[in-house]
């Protein structure tokens, strides 16, 4: 349930288009429910094609003036936005917890994490350097300059409702692009609050346009943006099937794409690893947001010589986790986002048990906590590659543990997936660290570390986990194109 807010006006329920708050053109609304209680906490606009078109018209109209601003001018506005986000950390965290379900301490951390991207790209706005190219013949000057791609359409997921949209809007705006955005239907309130603060910071009308829509009407909104040539870039975080659909649908207008898609992250514990550190790293990586992250370990491979000791240590930590609503300060694991999420977890655990896996801790839904979508933190052993949980992201607090015999087998099993977003391993052998880091097919590798995310680092995957990078000095380039200038007649 949404607690008291210092500024109740941050709780918005309308679209933001051309600097104005307005309902959906057809007047439809969408219920937003607290996954801990299933109570409706707000009703927001359920938008369609007319709203998507109005948002795009606004962004296109605002683009020429916004791109003409200097990088320093754009940076100053982004810094004002950043300051307002920090000043309203508590209110934003309460909104996140209410609509997404994560414990309040985690929600506060997400606000800081999302804000770090706004600050980072405010600084990068002044560093969009080009190149002076040595002239091949006398009398010519060759230059390469970076320019904003144009209008960007941003489509964001529910699991990090502030961080995901912040790390898309911030580089787009810093580069000089204007944005049309659609947050996930489960968690639109955080994005609306974030945009309200952007308006307060002084970002000009039309630079950010945000529409909300139900699962049923989302294709109507997104398809319009995909078909319209005025949208020059799509940035999307979500499932691989949807990412592929966006890539196909955007081909007719050859839009630039950034796709951060599904993962199936391996977590390898070698025989020479510090087991206590490995358990601590796994707990941090796996149980953040109740396992509902794209980079959380989905397959844990432990060398057979340390398997029993590792599982004993892990089971003790997992069994001690407290599950409950965000309103309870003791809660470490909140509810899953919806009933479909719990059903998928249950299906994976049942399939694993049917194929010979054994539950060490957990392994069941928790209806006794309340009306929300709760599932017990779970450890499974005797997992094998044929199980559904080895092939698909479980996206929940379930740790399947696999055995392996040697380094080659561990790397082979880790890479045996079409995905390549994140991977982790623990070892104290310096030579092995370099060998394994080079052989893992993944865009992100954690080496003796479970916490990977940082605004200064490039975030993104390979293979069917997508392409493009968010964060780092490379993140701005995804919102710009390179123009070559050749001037002759200088001799």
UniProtKB/TrEMBL annotation:
One of its GO terms (molecular function) is succinate-semialdehyde dehydrogenase (NAD+) activity. Keywords: Oxidoreductase. Its EC number is 1.2.1.16. The active site is at residue 260. Signal peptide: none annotated. It comes from the Bacteria. SUPFAM superfamilies: ALDH-like (SSF53720). The keyword NAD does not apply. This is Succinate-semialdehyde dehydrogenase. It comes from Ramlibacter tataouinensis.
């Amino acid at each position: 349930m949404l607690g008291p807010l210092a500024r109740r006006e941050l709780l918005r329920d309308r679209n933001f288009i051309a600097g104005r708050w307005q309902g959906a053109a057809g007047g439809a609304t969408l219920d937003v429910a607290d996954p801990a209680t299933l109570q409706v906490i707000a009703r927001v606009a359920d938008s369609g094609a007319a709203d998507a078109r109005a948002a795009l018209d606004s962004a296109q109209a605002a683009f020429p003036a916004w791109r003409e601003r200097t990088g320093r001018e754009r940076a100053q506005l982004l810094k004002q936005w950043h300051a307002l986000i920090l000043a309203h950390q508590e209110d934003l965290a309460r909104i996140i917890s209410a609509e997404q379900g994560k414990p309040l301490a985690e929600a506060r951390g997400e606000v800081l994490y999302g804000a770090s991207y706004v600050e980072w790209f405010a600084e990068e706005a002044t560093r969009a350097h080009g190149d002076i190219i040595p002239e091949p013949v006398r009398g010519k000057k060759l230059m390469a300059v970076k320019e904003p791609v144009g209008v960007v359409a941003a489509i964001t997921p529910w699991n990090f409702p502030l961080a995901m949209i912040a790390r898309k809007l911030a580089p787009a705006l810093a580069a000089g692009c204007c944005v049309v955005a659609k947050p996930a239907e489960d968690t639109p309130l955080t994005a609306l609050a974030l945009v309200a603060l952007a308006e307060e910071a002084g970002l000009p009308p039309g630079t950010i346009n945000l529409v909300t829509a139900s699962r049923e009407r989302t294709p109507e909104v997104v398809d319009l943006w995909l078909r319209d040539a005025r949208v020059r870039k799509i940035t999307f975080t979500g499932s691989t099937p949807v990412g592929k659909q966006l890539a196909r649908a955007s081909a007719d207008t050859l839009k630039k794409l950034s796709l951060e898609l599904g993962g199936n992250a391996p977590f390898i514990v070698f025989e020479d690893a510090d087991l206590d550190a490995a358990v601590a790293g796994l707990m941090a990586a796996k149980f953040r947001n109740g396992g509902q992250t794209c980079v959380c370990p989905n397959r844990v491979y432990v060398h057979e010589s340390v398997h029993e000791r590792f599982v004993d240590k892990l089971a003790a930590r997992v069994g001690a986790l407290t599950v409950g609503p965000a309103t309870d300060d003791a809660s470490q694991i909140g509810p899953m986002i919806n009933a479909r999420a719990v059903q998928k977890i249950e299906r994976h655990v049942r399939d694993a048990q049917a194929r010979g896996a054994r539950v060490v801790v957990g392994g069941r839904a928790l209806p006794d906590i309340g009306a929300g979508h709760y599932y017990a933190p779970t450890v499974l052993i005797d997992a094998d590659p044929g199980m559904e949980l080895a092939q698909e992201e479980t996206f929940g607090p379930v740790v399947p543990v696999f055995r392996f015999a040697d380094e080659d087998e561990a790397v082979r099993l880790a890479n045996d997936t079409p995905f390549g977003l994140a991977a982790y391993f623990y070892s104290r052998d310096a030579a092995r660290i370099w060998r394994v880091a080079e052989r893992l097919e993944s865009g992100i590798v954690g080496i003796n570390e479970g916490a990977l995310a940082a605004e200064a680092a490039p975030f993104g995957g390979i293979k069917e986990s997508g392409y493009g990078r968010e964060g780092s000095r490379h993140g701005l380039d995804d919102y710009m194109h390179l123009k070559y200038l050749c001037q002759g007649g200088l001799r």
